Amino acid sequence: MKKSFWGLIWSSFLRVQGILGGIIVFALTVLVWLLSPDKNISLGWVLPIGFFCVILILALGNAAYEAFKISEHVLPIVLVGKKPPTQISGAKLLCLIEPSELFSYDTLVSFYYIGDENFEQFMGIGRVINIQEDNKIQVVMTHSLDGYEEKIEKLVQNDAGILKRTRVKPNIPAKIYLHRILQGE
Amino acid sequence: MDNIKATKNQKEKTFPAVIVKVIDDFKVVINRGTLHKIRKGQQFLLYKLSEEEIKDPASGESLGYLEITKGTGKIIHVQERISTIESNKREPSERRIVRKKSMSPFFSSFTGEEEEETIVPSGRLVPFDDPIVGDKAKPI
Questions:
Q1: How many CB atoms are located within 10 Å of the residue A49 CB?
Q2: By 3-state DSSP, what share of chain A in percent is helix, strand and coil, each rounded to 5?
Q3: Which of A17, A51, A103, B133 lies 20 to 30 Å from B2, alpha-carbon distance?
Q4: What does the angle CA A88 – CA B68 – CA A181 come to, to the nearest 5 degrees?
Q5: Which chain B residue has its CA at the smallest distance from A164's CA?
Q6: Contact assessment for residue A86 and residue B129, using Cβ atoms and an 8 Å cutoff
């Protein structure tokens, strides 16, 4: 089951025996206070140690949050839409997507548009034509469904709104695959 | 001595290779050879970098340079420091639908014309897209 960020923090806290550790630390504090209630600690020690702990907690918390955000996006974000290279016959669109280990050179991909009600609408299929030196991936759409011409044209024009609603997946629907196989493509 | 230097360079960065000569639209020569462990039959992608940086349309942030692909090819000849790549992309297969009349007039009245679909594989290579000296190549 997918957890929220704070859900993950709580489960990590439980996993490292946070409750037991908290009780032990509290007991030790009370014990020390009872044994030597007049003992003082210099501010010269408390302030740097305190600040160091705060910075460490903030840094770890931020790293954990960033890791959580990254894990939310399994599919790469579509960065740019462009006119496809001329040598790829029938290509309608070139997209540059974020680096992802899910994609390899020449793998088949499918394009989806996230509609107003967050339903994925299948737009077409294509393939990976290049994995750049910076690991960004170039995919081209080679076949599209009727009715998506306007959206594809906007993607070619690098429309930020449509790009945001476009997903590229490293697989194609079985129906299309079987149809193409039977047609001998 | 030269071999040691070449091996060191290879470890540093073998790819992308650079096109050093364009023989014709179908064949180019790259500056990598047996010293860089290039093998005959290996497949390469030819590309150049876009002149302008690509920017995120929403944030305006730079996304680096786009690699503009110029085609794919395979190594057909390897020398010590250079190799020849030939385009290996072919034009798509052609689909033809042939309508035949049935041999027997009796059956043709039931079945009508028969359709037979044949796929004719294309033998024609597709040239690289305007290859020039200085373009890059990397294995795929």
A1: 11
A2: 45, 20, 35
A3: B133
A4: 30
A5: B58
A6: yes
Please report, as a single letter, which amino acid is at residue A123: M
Specify the amino acid at residue A177: Y
Q: How many domains does chain A have?
A: 2
Does A88 lie in the same domain as A123? Answer: yes
CA distance, residue B128 to nearest chain A CA (Å): 8
- Phi, then psi, of A134 in degrees rounded to 5: -90, 15
What tens digit of pLDDT does each residue of A133-179 get? 999 999 999 999 999 999 999 999 999 999 999 999 999 988 877 77
pLDDT tens for each residue of A60-110: 999 888 888 777 778 899 999 999 988 888 899 999 999 999 999 999 999
| CB pair distance less than 8 Å for B56 and A85 | no
Which residues of chain A approach chain B closer than 8 Å at the C-beta?
79-80, 82, 85-87, 89-90, 96, 105-106, 129-130, 132-134, 136, 138, 158-160, 163-164, 183-185
Same domain, A32 and A83: no
Domains in chain B: ranges and CATH: 2-89+125-139 (2.40.10.410), 91-122 (no CATH)
Single-letter amino acid code for the residue at B76? I
CB contact under 8 A, B70 and A184: no
B24: distance to nearest CA of chain A, Å? 16
ipTM of the assembly? 0.70
Cα(B132)–Cα(B140) distance, rounded to whole angstroms?
Answer: 20
